[in-house]
């Protein structure tokens, strides 16, 4: 009998749990895709085959069920933050996460790495529900556990659970949950909320669609070409492949590069999927892959 926990060499994202001829694989949700038979490895000396895949994004884990010599494994799960920085919860996405010790601070994390920390102004605190700085002890204060219930079935929540335009202010938008406004948020400087894609865009691109929604006087509307960083040409927001390295990509925000990010081990950036993928699934051309 053989029982051990082994990590695949050069790839600490995979954990093998071996007992006799039974193997269980774990991976992150980022690789929740069709199992690639050539990637099968056998630390226990038994041939393995893909059985099925299930994804549980709430725990940031994918459990891949395999069987060895006709023996089916039992499902199990392990908790692992995959080396995420303190304060960053999800190592596979971009997120704003409140500081565990100071409710007035919020961290901007990209794939588990903390890039910067913002302090809420005017004694406000960060609301995880509203994804915004809110007044302490207000109905949106989920830090002090004093959340109250605002008016339900709010007619402004055309999208029952999601972002909606503020009918009175084109530079603001409403975060709704089950037809209840949980937060009113401001767009970044010189941007307005677009109803075309439910996000804040450069003011001159949205001004015409504001119609009855008021444009605040501090918003500058100009048709002058905005500053665009070269890697972000052709896109405004999102992830863009690095033309010099297959294992890296740029994160663009309104045409500006906010981060250059390295994909996890044994992966490369898939420009079509706009995310890191198995190296075997990415055509790197003559771009280097090794970190």
TrEMBL record:
InterPro entries: Chitin-bd_dom, Chitin-bd_dom_sf, Chitin_bind-dev_reg. One of its GO terms (cellular component) is extracellular region. SMART domains: ChtBD2 (SM00494). PROSITE patterns: CHIT_BIND_II (PS50940). GO terms for molecular function: chitin binding. Keywords: Chitin-binding, Disulfide bond, Glycoprotein, Repeat, Signal. Coiled coil: none annotated. It comes from the Eukaryota. It holds the Pfam family CBM_14. Residues 85-145, 154-212, 229-286 form the Chitin-binding type-2 domain. This is Chitin-binding type-2 domain-containing protein. The lineage of its organism: Eukaryota, Metazoa, Spiralia, Lophotrochozoa, Mollusca.
């Amino acid at each position: 009998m053989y029982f051990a926990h082994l990590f695949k060499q050069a790839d600490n994202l995979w954990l093998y749990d071996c007992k006799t001829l039974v193997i269980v694989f774990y991976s992150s949700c980022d690789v929740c895709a069709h199992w690639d038979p050539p990637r099968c490895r056998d630390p226990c000396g038994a041939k393995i085959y893909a059985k099925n895949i299930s994804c549980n994004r709430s725990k940031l884990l994918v459990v891949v069920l395999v069987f060895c010599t006709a023996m089916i494994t039992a499902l199990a799960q392990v908790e692992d933050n995959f080396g995420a920085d303190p304060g960053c919860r999800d190592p596979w996405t971009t997120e704003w996460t409140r500081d565990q010790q100071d409710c007035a601070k919020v961290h901007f994390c990209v794939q588990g790495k903390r890039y910067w920390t913002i302090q809420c102004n005017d004694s406000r605190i960060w609301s995880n529900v509203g994804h915004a700085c809110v007044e302490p002890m207000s109905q949106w204060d989920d830090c002090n556990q004093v959340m109250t219930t605002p008016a339900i079935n709010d007619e402004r929540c055309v999208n029952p659970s999601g972002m909606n335009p503020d009918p009175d202010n084109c530079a603001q938008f409403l975060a709704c949950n089950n037809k209840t406004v949980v937060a009113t948020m401001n767009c970044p400087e010189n941007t307005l909320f677009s109803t075309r894609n439910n996000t804040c865009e450069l003011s001159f691109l949205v001004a015409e669609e504001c119609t009855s929604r008021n444009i605040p006087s501090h918003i500058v509307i100009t048709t002058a070409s905005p500053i665009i960083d070269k890697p972000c040409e052709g896109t405004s927001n999102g992830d863009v492949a690095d033309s010099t390295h297959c294992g890296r990509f740029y994160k663009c925000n309104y045409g500006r590069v906010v981060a250059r990010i390295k994909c996890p081990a044994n992966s490369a950036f898939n420009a079509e999927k706009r995310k890191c993928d198995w190296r075997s699934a990415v055509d790197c051309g003559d771009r280097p892959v090794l970190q």
